[in-house]
Design goal:
The protein has 146 residues and is mostly helical. It contains 7 helices and no strands. Helices cover 84% and strands 0% of the residues.
C-alpha cells in the first residue's frame, strides 16, 4: 500500500518541483545561454515525469514489467540529477560546485536511498512477486492443486 501511495505521489512531486523552480528559471533565463539551459532542464524533468507515469501505469495494471520499470526509475534519479548539473554548469559556464551550492545534493540522495529501499522490497517480497509475476502466481496455483 505504501509503495502504491509513494509511486502515485512521485509524479506530483515532480510537478511541484516545476512549480517551485519557476522563479529560478526566470533568473536563469537572464544569463547567457540561460534560455537553452532552462529549456534543457525542463525537457529533462518532463522525460523523468513521463517515466514516472509509465511506472505508475504499469503498477496499476499489475504489469510484469513493473519491477524492471521501477528499477529503471531508481537508476534514473542520479542520472537525471547528474545530467542536469552538467548541463547547467556547461551552458552557463559555472563550476559544478556553484551549481551544487547549499543543499542541492540532499533531495536527490534521500530520494535515491529511499527508492533503493523500495527496490529491495520489490525484488524480495513474496507479495510483490505474486502480484506482478504472473508466472510465479500461476505456478503457486498449479502446485496448490496437485
Amino acid at each position: 500500500m505504501l509503495l502504491a501511495i509513494g509511486q502515485t505521489l512521485s509524479p506530483l512531486r515532480t510537478l511541484a518541483e516545476f512549480g517551485n523552480s519557476i522563479e529560478g528559471y526566470q533568473q536563469l533565463m537572464t544569463l547567457p545561454n540561460g534560455l537553452l539551459a532552462t529549456y534543457g532542464e525542463i525537457a529533462l524533468l518532463l522525460a523523468f515525469l513521463v517515466l514516472q507515469l509509465v511506472v505508475l501505469i504499469a503498477m496499476f495494471r499489475r504489469s510484469p514489467r513493473f519491477k524492471k520499470l521501477f528499477l529503471l526509475q531508481w537508476f534514473a534519479i542520479p542520472v537525471v540529477f547528474l545530467v542536469d548539473v552538467i548541463w547547467i554548469s556547461t551552458l552557463i559556464k559555472v563550476s559544478v560546485s556553484q551549481v551544487l551550492a547549499g543543499d542541492a545534493l540532499v533531495k536527490p540522495i534521500v530520494s535515491f536511498v529511499v527508492t533503493g529501499i523500495w527496490v529491495a522490497y520489490i525484488y524480495n517480497s513474496v507479495r510483490v512477486r505474486n502480484t506482478f509475476d504472473r508466472a510465479a502466481a500461476n505456478a503457486e496455483i498449479a502446485t496448490a492443486f496437485q
